[in-house]
Structures are given as C-alpha cells and as structure tokens.
C-alpha cells in the first residue's frame, strides 16, 4: 500500500519512527523506494547537491518540477513531498496556491513543503490545506533564510525556542500534516514532539522526533561538506572515483573491452 499523510499520523500515535530521505532523480528515487523509505522529499537542497548552486535560493519552480517529475516516475510506495523553491510562495497565498497547484498537477506528487511559521506562513498553509493541498511545514533552521540565519543551530535561548514552538503549533493549527524540525536542540524538539499531535520529522534535532530525514547526498558520502548532525553510511565519492579511475586505466591499457565485454 502506498504511504499516505494519514499513515504518518498513525505511525506517530503507534510510536513507529518515520523514515524520510531526499531524492532528485529517477534512479535514486527508485532505489530509495525499493529500500522501503516511508517518504521521499524532493528537497530544494537539490540546488546545492545536484545543480551546484551556492545556496538553495536560485532554484526555480521549473527546475523543481523537472526533478520532481523524474522522482514521481520512479516511486510506487513512498509518499512524495516537493519543496516549494524560494520566492515561489512567500509573496502571497495566491502565489503559493499557484506554485503548489502546479507541483500537484504536473508532477503527481502528493504534498508540498514550505519553510517558516507564524503568522504569515501559517495563514498560507491554511489556505493550501483548505484547497486540498497537503502541506509539510519546516521550522528551526530554514535554509531559504540563510542570509538572515546562516546555517547555525536555532532555538538555543528560551525566547527563540518559544518562538519555534509557537510556529510549529501554528502550522499544526493551520492543518499541516507534519513538520520538519531542522538544527534545533534535542530538548526543544522533544518538547515540540510531545506538544504536537502531528508528526515531527527531525534533521539535526536529536532522537526524540517522530521521524528523521537526511539529505541523501550526505548519507551516501557524496556531499562536499557533511553538516555536523549528518551521518555518511557509505563513501560513494570514493567508490565512484575509484571505478572511474579503473575504467580509465583499463581503456588506456587496452584491457577494456575484452573477453565477454568485447563480443559482438
Ligand atoms: O531541501 C531539503 O533537503 C530539506 C531537508 C533538509 C529537510 O528541506
């Protein structure tokens, strides 16, 4: 059975952790889906990890739609959530509706994610949800605000922690089906997770969230720099470099193709 937003809520209530990873193309999404992840986020981190931008800000809606369609073609089970790129939803709820509508209509993904909380974004989320568009919220470190926040941990003081808690609460009230908590203290994430009825998905937010998400390039050891809270479960950078070096050497030495590879 394909994963739904309601299923995520049931898993929170059952205490069954939710597994989320990012994907940006057909091949990767197929592997993640077959490996059984619960949800795939076509995150705007693809701007940095696959398109070579310095930040997530330059990513356009057209670029996001292109990648999200490829992911959609690969996935049979996982819930697909697509990030709305910077300034494709912050101007007005009409702009958000237009962008989110294009994501659902043109890619076949089931939900969108947007960054920020109270009050402006909570109102936008409410409008999208009323129009039948499932929304994943995102508070704490919000990379689209890098020029205000940097990539530092957020919510370290009582005031900023309280602010993040109220943003998460406002998103829940507005109808978000879950909320990403990025790079905040574990104790704050635990408090938010206990107070909300919707699932929290943590990244750099400690072990007490209802689920965890990682940028798949970090998990696979493909990223230029690993954030302090991420873990590389493989070193694909090394594996790929070695495979390419082996191929190059064999071609230059006349060892490839040979034997079965050389048959007509
Ligand atoms: O774009 C992304 O990959 C994200 C995750 C960090 C949650 O938003």
Task: Give a verbal description of the structure.
The protein is α/β, with parallel strands linked by helices. The chain contains eleven helices and eight strands. It is globular. The structure holds 3-methyl-2-oxobutanoic acid (KIV).
The description of the largest β-sheet is: 8 strands, parallel, barrel
**Bound ligands, named by name, code or SMILES:** 3-methyl-2-oxobutanoic acid
The dominant shape is: globular
> How do the strands line up in the largest sheet?
1-2-3-4-5-6-7-8
CATH class: Alpha Beta
Indicate the structural class.
alpha/beta
In short:
The protein is of the alpha/beta class and 264 residues long. It is built from eleven helices and eight strands. It has an eight-stranded parallel β-barrel, surrounded by seven helices.
Output the keywords.
8-stranded parallel barrel; 8 strands; globular; TIM Barrel; alpha/beta; 14% strand; 264 residues; binds 3-methyl-2-oxobutanoic acid
Topology, please?
Blueprint: H1 5-14, E1 18-22, H2 26-34, E2 39-42, H3 46-49, H4 61-74, E3 79-83, H5 93-107, E4 111-113, H6 120-130, E5 135-140, H7 146-149, H8 158-174, E6 178-182, H9 186-195, E7 200-203, E8 211-214, H10 216-219, H11 236-253
Parallel strand pairs: 1-2, 1-8, 2-3, 3-4, 4-5, 5-6, 6-7, 7-8
Helix pairs in contact: 2-4, 4-5, 5-6, 6-8, 8-9
3-methyl-2-oxobutanoic acid (KIV) binds next to strand 6.
